[in-house]
Structure formats: C-alpha cells, structure tokens
C-alpha cells in the first residue's frame, strides 16, 4: 500500500518558520484531496489545511494568514509552509490523502513540530 511520508518537523522559536513536506508516491493529486492535520497533546486530531483535487485550499481559522498549503504534482509532494509560529502550534502534524470516489484514505506517520516561547 502507498505510504505517505512526512518530513520537516523540528524545534523552532516562536515567530519562526518551518516547511513540512509530504511525499505521496503513487497518489494522483487530481483525484485526491490532500490535507494536513495536527494533534496537540491531550487533544483530538484537527484539520489544519487541505487542498482539493482542483487546487482549492481551505484553512483552519487558527492558521489563516500564517500557513500555506501547496502541492507539486510532478513530484507527488504536498507542502505546508508555516510562518509566524506560536507555541500553540506545537503538535504532531499528519498528512492525509482522500479519494472519495474510491473510498480510499491514507495517513502518514506524523512529524513533530515544537514551538518554544
């Protein structure tokens, strides 16, 4: 089965930036919605941003204006550019693909992002 692989997490000071990558070999972005989710300690996993098969993007209110989701179709990679990071952005970030027509959903293993104050 195709695996999604996240990378780019790490430790950063508040106000800093990170770019997460999600390698998705074999995933057709033109029929999959790709999303970034996060799970903060003691909380449920939540949507951060997603990009639809047609390229339309949506964001959680908490990250609007600071985070940008994008995709590179030839490279089968999705990115999450995170700027002006805050301590409350500390979480494990997960990549997800979803093909509604095929009833197929896949997750990556997650990457830790820690923002120090």
Compact summary:
With 117 residues, this protein is mostly beta strands. It contains no helices and 11 strands.
Describe the protein's architecture and organization.
With 117 residues, the protein is mostly beta strands. The protein contains no helices and eleven strands. The protein has strands spanning 5-7, 10-13, 18-23, 33-39, 46-51, 57-59, 67-72, 77-82, 91-99, 104-107, 111-116. Strands 2, 4, 5, 6, 9, 10 and 11 form a seven-stranded mixed β-sheet that branches. Strands 1-3-8-7 form a four-stranded antiparallel β-sheet, with no helix packed on it. The protein is globular and about 45 Å long. The model has no long low-confidence stretch (mean pLDDT 96).
List the helices and strands and how they pair.
Layout: E1 5-7, E2 10-13, E3 18-23, E4 33-39, E5 46-51, E6 57-59, E7 67-72, E8 77-82, E9 91-99, E10 104-107, E11 111-116
Parallel strand pairs: 2-11
Antiparallel strand pairs: 1-3, 3-8, 4-5, 4-9, 5-6, 7-8, 9-10, 9-11
Q: What tags apply to this protein structure?
A:
117 residues, mainly beta, seven-stranded mixed sheet, four-stranded antiparallel sheet, 11 strands, 51% strand
